[in-house]
Prior knowledge:
- The chain is mainly alpha-helical.
- It contains twelve helices and no strands.
- The chain is globular and about 65 Å long.
Amino acid sequence: PALLGALVLVMATARLLGEGVQRLGQPAVLGELLAGVLLGASGLGVLDPADPVLHALSEFGVLILLFEIGLHTDLRTLARVGGAATTVGAVGMALPFALGFGVARALGLDVLPATVAAAALTATSIGISARVLSDVGELDSPEGQVVLGAAVLDDVGGLVILSVVSGLAAGGALTLGGVAATTAIALGFVVGALVLGRLVVPPLFRGLARMRAAGTLAVFGLAFAFALAWVAQAAGSAMIIGAFAAGLVLHGTPQRAEIERATTTVGHVVVPIFFAVVGASVD
């Protein structure tokens, strides 16, 4: 009953505040984050972001969000802005790292803690970026595609940086081979998933389309996204990168429209939970 009560409050408050901020010309995600702040420890204290069930639901929410964005994204369009996205992504990692390290050292931190702080500052939330662009209708614009591509590269690069820094913090040595291996795993998963997916997935979903049970394509589309998210995590990448890659693979299939409709419907329920839980974590 306590969980159901929390879900009622989260879903209703997130939707109402999302609608409210949209009327003020802001993306709905801002209202969902504010709903979390209001219901979390900083406000009414009725939403506990550490609750394992709410945490799991929020993780499902961000996976479905990235799957939705992938389904909506044409890989060829993304490739056309690849140069600009790479530049934006590289600067978006290098500048925060350098400034973060410099400020941390100026505040008196030792080299290792300063490096850890700088590495944490390199991360960009692709979930937030993608949702804001979608809310304001700019996801398909050239600028939106640059930001989306940069956010994907930033997530991959951030994984590499955090992996190297966590190794240093644990007492390991920084080696060129170790950095190269971590980078190869992070990039190799995305490339491998896209190449293999383009060969295997279209005939598989053509066969599934002949099944008569209602909702078959939607169920298997979500199952594919979750499977690729699991493989991404196992390969040392991020689950959200796997879900995004699954959407990119399915974008070119004739069954994409039916899968996207069902995914969007599920997303209306669980995606706001993710952002509300993020807001509830704010002190």
